[in-house]
Amino acid sequence: MGQSELDKVKEAANKAINSKVANFRKEYDSKMGQHKQIAQKLERLKDAKRLAEREMSELNSFKSKVNREVKKTAQGSFKGSRRKKFEQSSEQIIKAVKSEYDKNQDEINALNRKIAKLEFEESSVGGAMAEINATISGLMAAIK
Q1: Where does this protein have coiled-coil stretches (predicted)?
Q2: Helix axes of 81-142 and 3-74: crossing angle, nearest 10 degrees
């Protein structure tokens, strides 16, 4: 095999490698787009979680206030039907606050699950990007 034939073989091999590199770069760009979308979703979910946690804190403060006021008023001297109505109303308020608190806690738990899932996806996509990048580097090193 002469030098010109060897050069043609090398050139053909380099073209094939460049073609593979181009395909891997397209795949890398696609993964990069996925990664950005996941990061944006994560940011929105984390913002929603922060807001929900702030609301939970406010609700918890309100719940404590209601309980304090109910206990303080329960020690009052009124009796009979007024006392019964007060106790019924107090129970309804406490149940409503507890229900809202539990609902918010469930929402936070759901957000935590979604965040964990997206963080796993983000990690997987990042790993795939690293593998693609390593493959591209290896192919580029083969071109001489």
Answers
A1: 35-65, 94-121
A2: 170
Does the global pTM surpass 0.85? no
**Among 30, 65, 62, 52, residue whose Cα is nearest residue 108:** 52
**Diameter of the chain measured on Cα atoms:** 113
- Structure-token match 């181009």, residue found: 22
Q: Are 118 and 35 in contact (CB under 8 A)?
A: no
Residue whose tokens read 């309804």? 92
Walk me through the domains of the chain, giving residue ranges and CATH numbers. 2-142 (1.10.287)
Find, among 32, 59, 52, the residue nearest to 114 by Cα. 52
Q: Could you count the other beta carbons within 10 Å of the beta carbon of residue 142?
A: 12
| Cα–Cα distance measured from residue 97 to residue 62, given in angstroms and rounded to the nearest whole number | 8
Q: Positive or negative, the Cα torsion across 82, 85, 88, 89?
A: negative
CB 113 within 8 A of CB 9: no
Q: What is the mean pLDDT of residues 33-40?
A: 98
